[in-house]
């Protein structure tokens, strides 16, 4: 149930009802009703809760998250940006009330002659990129590094960066974020399997 999921994540993070209320602008009583499944929160409320708990809103909108530590290919969450030619496959289990991964591993696919976004992104995690196929240009601040298949690079935390594929084939690789980031405050918008 949604309420139990909210409560488990809140407690796992060591956040009190009062602190969650202060972070979200919602009343303690209302959050308590949500946690006891006495009311159905609006999408706006779910967004406030997800931002305060540092998890993506979609975790509250779909089926229950797996509690296992193994992610099967058929169960992988695929994220994509609207009007973009990049796909992300989450290889790390999603956070749930029992487990919050400390690292996030994503397999990315970037179409030829495309960028992973219009604007550079900044996040508080270190990002390791390992390119398995194709070419990748990684622009960090004003310096571009060209990766070929088998190459790796590290993007230090809090530096603006953007990735592009200058080649004629899809660039495929892995991105490892430490500590894990779960996208609630990221500039990019994600969806589940292409749905809005």
TrEMBL record:
<dbReference type="InterPro" id="IPR050807">
    <property type="entry name" value="TransReg_Diox_bact_type"/>
</dbReference>
<dbReference type="InterPro" id="IPR014710">
    <property type="entry name" value="RmlC-like_jellyroll"/>
</dbReference>
<dbReference type="InterPro" id="IPR013096">
    <property type="entry name" value="Cupin_2"/>
</dbReference>
<protein>
    <submittedName>
        <fullName>Transcriptional regulator, contains XRE-family HTH domain</fullName>
    </submittedName>
</protein>
<keyword id="KW-0238">DNA-binding</keyword>
<dbReference type="GO" id="GO:0003700">
    <property type="term" value="F:DNA-binding transcription factor activity"/>
</dbReference>
<dbReference type="Pfam" id="PF07883">
    <property type="entry name" value="Cupin_2"/>
</dbReference>
<dbReference type="Pfam" id="PF01381">
    <property type="entry name" value="HTH_3"/>
</dbReference>
<dbReference type="InterPro" id="IPR001387">
    <property type="entry name" value="Cro/C1-type_HTH"/>
</dbReference>
<dbReference type="GO" id="GO:0005829">
    <property type="term" value="C:cytosol"/>
</dbReference>
<dbReference type="InterPro" id="IPR011051">
    <property type="entry name" value="RmlC_Cupin_sf"/>
</dbReference>
<dbReference type="GO" id="GO:0003677">
    <property type="term" value="F:DNA binding"/>
</dbReference>
<dbReference type="InterPro" id="IPR010982">
    <property type="entry name" value="Lambda_DNA-bd_dom_sf"/>
</dbReference>
<feature type="domain" description="HTH cro/C1-type">
    <location>
        <begin position="6"/>
        <end position="59"/>
    </location>
</feature>
